[in-house]
């Protein structure tokens, strides 16, 4: 029996099976690379915002916080009659708490940005599982 000039045999053609599998694997690799590049771009954008928040936090802390804390300490001395040591200690503690709050917000935002890479990992795992399954089924049928 002949179709399109080729003889049809009952045994699978190893070369065409391998060629088809190779083609599918290459397409999968291309799609995986595209997904990875999109995830990296999205993660970079999210991380960029987090880095800007951290830089902003540091600038505020280094620029205006010391002046504000000194003013707060002087206010505590003048209005409440606290000693200068106690006033400066409370003002420093408040400064530390503000800095920790801003840093925690930046970390939360950064963590969310990193989570987008999960999509690429999951898709890669599915592709590898499919490839293994396809190889196994072709090996058993051959």
Question: What would the keywords be for this entry?
Answer:
two-stranded antiparallel ribbon; 142 residues; mainly alpha
Count up the domains: 1
Distance linking N and C termini: 22 Å
- Average the pLDDT over all residues and give the rounded result: 81
Structure class: mainly alpha
Oligomer: single chain
Strand order of the largest sheet: 1-2
Note down, in words, how this protein is organized:
The structure is a single chain. 86% of the residues lie in helices and 3% in strands. The protein has helices at residues 14-63, 65-80, 84-115, 118-141; strands at 2-3, 6-7. The longest helix is centred in the N-terminal third of the chain and has 50 residues, at 14-63. It contains 4 helices and 2 strands. The model has no long low-confidence stretch (mean pLDDT 81). It starts with a strand and ends with a helix.
Quick structural gist:
The chain has 142 residues and is an all-alpha fold. It has helices at residues 14-63, 65-80, 84-115, 118-141; strands spanning 2-3, 6-7.
Strand and helix layout:
Elements: E1 2-3, E2 6-7, H1 14-63, H2 65-80, H3 84-115, H4 118-141
Antiparallel strand pairs: 1-2
